[in-house]
Amino acid sequence: MKASLKWDGVLGFEATGGSGKAIVTDASTGAGGRGLGPTPMELILFGLGGCMGIDVVHILKKSRIQLTSFSMELEGERAMDNPRGFTRIKIQLVLKGRGLTEAAISRAVNLSMEKYCSVRSSLKAEVVTEYSFENI
Description:
The protein is α+β, with helices and mostly antiparallel strands. 33% of the residues lie in helices and 29% in strands. The longest helix has 23 residues, at 40-62.
C-alpha cells in the first residue's frame, strides 16, 4: 500500500493513495493552516471508523442481518504533551435493521476491534517507521 503527498506551500497536502483517489489534508486555522481539509488526526478517526464499519457490515451480513441504517460518531482524546497522540477514542454506533440484536452488534464490534480491523491493530502496535530523504 502506498501514499504520495504534495505540499501546498502552507500547511496542507494533497494526498493520493495507491488507488489513485486524492484528498486534501490541512492543519487547522488555529495551528496556522487554512482548514482546507481534515487534519491528520481526523484522518486517523476516519480510518478507524471506516475500517470498523466495513467489518461490522460484513459480519452482520454473514449473520443474515439486514441493516437499513448505520452511522458512527468517534471522539478522540489527545495527550496534552507532544506528540499529542490519542489516549482514548470513544465510538458510538447507531444501527437499525431487521433481525438486529444487542448480542449480534456486540459480537460484530468485538470481532472487528480484536481480530479484523487493521487500523485498530495499527493503533495498538508500535509500528516500525523508517525514512529516507533527498535534498535537491
